[in-house]
Amino acid sequence: MKHTALKRALFTLSCIVIACSTILADTPIRVACIGNSVTYGYGHKDPTATSYPTRLDEMLGEGYEVRNFGHSGATLLNHGHRPYTQQKAYRDAIAFAPDKAIIHLGLNDTDPRNWPNYRDEFIPDYLALIDTLRAANPNVEVWVCRMTPIFHGHRRFKSGTRDWHAQIQVAIEEVARLAGVNLIDLHEPLYHRPDLFADALHPNAEGAMILARTVYSAMTGEYGGLSIPDIYSDGMVIQRHKPFTLHGTANVGCKITATLGKEKQGTSVAPDGSWQLTFKARKATHEPLTLTISDGHITLTRTDILVGEVWLCSGQSNMAFMLHQATDAQTNISEALTKQHLRIYNMRPRVYTDAVAWDSASLAQLNRLDYFLPTQWQALTEDNAPHLSAIAYHFGAMLADSLNVPIGLICNAVGGAPIESFIDRHTIEYHPELVDILTDWRNNDRIQDWVRKRGAHNIQKSSNPLQRHPYEPCYLYETGIAQLTGYPLRGFVWYQGESNAHNVELFSTEFPALVSSWRRAWNDETIPFHFVQLSSIARPSWPHFRDVQRQLADEIEHCYMAVSSDKGDSLDVHPRDKRPIGERLGRIALHHNYGYRHVVPSGPTIRSARNWGKSIVLTFDHAEGMHASDGTALRTFEVADKNGLYYPADKIEVKDNTIILKSSQVQHPMRARYGWQPFTRANLVNSAELPASTFEIKVKDCP
Q1: How far is residue 117's CA from residue 261's CA, in Å, rounded to a whole number?
Q2: N or C: which end of the chain has fewer CB within 10 A?
Q3: Which helix (H) or strand (E) holds 129?
Q4: Where are the alpha helices (DSSP H) in 291-328?
């Protein structure tokens, strides 16, 4: 009898357990999306259909219940002008007792009524909000989010919002650490997409989809499996004598193992899906290596890898100018085919910036930062050699012949592109002299008129007022340069300026900003940056511009300039004789970066000026054997008194490393200049037949 009663009790208990299990299995995981107007979906035609919580619910599928607890204008600060904790959305979120909570607050705290007054309360208030969620459900899993971007178009951007936004981001990271909760970065996925923010603050439906995918990956750990950037392809050249850094993404929980040659490295995938590992520095080798990477599920293999020297060659049309367009094209192409260990990674645009209106498909690709055609590392062939940058080729060929190691050239150049399109957004946003160049670029007179008109012509079929274009500030950095960062290089070669010659004062700020931008991106403040000075052409501003370039080369460390004015064309902005210019860049690299001190790196370089009676004495570096390139008298030297009225020098004498100038029309010479014509016939060279730069110089102490 007792035995039967026990059986019945056990049967009843088992039924209860099964019923409870069924109820639990049928209960969805509750996900609360807590936030402000971005969470709510402000600006969307139908937030209930396109807000990021709605999209997240669709992605998570059955087994989850995602609710949107966003409230427009809400502040995290309890002393803010509209505290989230005083809104119905907050009370509903707590009553929901979520199993998982995503918090995106802080944007409205950048209001001058809030952060300046109550910043010290931000972290305590945020921690209190998390504690309240934990009180409602002790098992709740919480993610706090780095805020979505606020762009330069916001009316308070420069007056405080930009800086307070950055400070709040740091505070949010500290909240995650103190509370022991997860951190999601909602800033980075959208920072390069200002076209998705009509009011500079609220992402549209496409932006909300990006947010949803970002949150989904953070919650599930799913990042699409093992992936590496395209730059790590078959045939790549690895920079010798530097650790080789390899990075990519994979699903959370995976272990990454990679083998390069006989060296094996491993690491774990970070919570944001990223991973990085580093191989030891290697000597150059012509013997191909193989790289394998595995996450335990997917294995990627890259073959035919060489170790040598890698340079990034970038700029506008004179860098993009191809071998088949240059003087002696067929001879150059035939020669290129013999360079068996010269490899190229040639980033060619999907559409060129010719005077045409682009179609809707191209415009959409540009907005997605998909401007360059897919490519990979390649040896030179009859098919690809004609389309290689002529400047890059002659530079690389000189290095290959001199160093006898594999040479890798990454080519990223776009015709007509202004320098500001190659600078990263953060650098421009925080530069007091450059930030305004971001505003309405197609009507911004800081940008050259031709550039603005060509951009408008290309995108005239777009109905999006925020349509992207390669000439837009930051664009070519975001779509091109950013895809290369992290890949070890020896240095940069740059040929650009034609689209900025209208404003030498602005360029004198932009160029150092570009150099700093790229050096920070590669985490190397001494990485070489060599460039080509503009050539000669009948454009009035170019003498001033060439001189500013010369001065910048003097001012910026590890930065050197190749002169091209002797190879200019009075009517064509694209001189065809590229070999000498590429080889001059090669000379610079051999002398300054590879220790070939016997290689003369440049023509006579002006160093100082002093008075000598009625004459002015100019001192030069690299002055050995100064003479006229064409066997005639030296020309285009001019002399002025302190008032700056110039007259031709009628007596020019070379003496050792100096040139002595005199003009019968100037009694007290205090200034001198050389090659000061848009299309100059200046003819000063040294024993290496390398030309001197356009220059203007004052006697020391001259006002």
Answers
A1: 58
A2: N
A3: helix 122-136
A4: 317-320
For residues 410 and 406, give the distance between their C-alpha atoms in angstroms, rounded to a whole number.
Answer: 13
| 275 CA to centre of own chain | 20
CA of residue 240 relative to chain centroid, distance: 23
Distances (CA, A) of 466 to 68, 175, 446: 28, 35, 18
Tell whether pTM > 0.85.
yes
Q: What is the CA radius of gyration of the chain?
A: 31
Contact 567, 577 (CB under 8 A): yes
CA dihedral sign, ordered 89, 95, 100, 106: positive
Q: Which domains does the chain have, with CATH numbers?
A: 25-220 (3.40.50.1110), 237-312 (2.60.40), 314-319+326-432+479-513+532-590 (3.40.50), 605-698 (2.60.40)
**Which band of pLDDT confidence, cut at 50, 70 and 90, is reported for residue 8?**
very low
**SS3 for 333?**
helix
Decide if 653 contacts 628 (C-beta within 8 A). no
Phi first, then psi: what are they for 77, rounded to 5°? -65, 130
The burial of 647, by beta-carbon neighbours within 10 Å (0-12 exposed, 13-18 middle, 19 or more buried), is given as middle
Do residues 637 and 583 lie in contact, with contact meaning Cβ atoms separated by under 8 Å? no
d(CA 165, CA 103): 16
Please state whether beta strands 615-621 and 605-612 pair in parallel, antiparallel, or not at all (unpaired).
antiparallel
Give the Cα separation of 532 and 582 in Å (integer).
Answer: 9
Predicted confidence (pLDDT) per residue in 176-187, tens digit? 999 999 999 999
Question: To 5 degrees, how large is the angle CA 220–CA 226–CA 230?
Answer: 130
Per the structure block, which two tokens stand in for 634?
A: 């030296």
**Alpha-helix runs per DSSP H in 305-437:** 317-320, 329-336, 360-367, 390-403, 425-429
Q: Closest by alpha carbon to 169, among 182, 185, 180, 158?
A: 185
What's the pLDDT score for residue 26? 73
The band of 703, judged by pLDDT with boundaries at 50, 70 and 90, is low
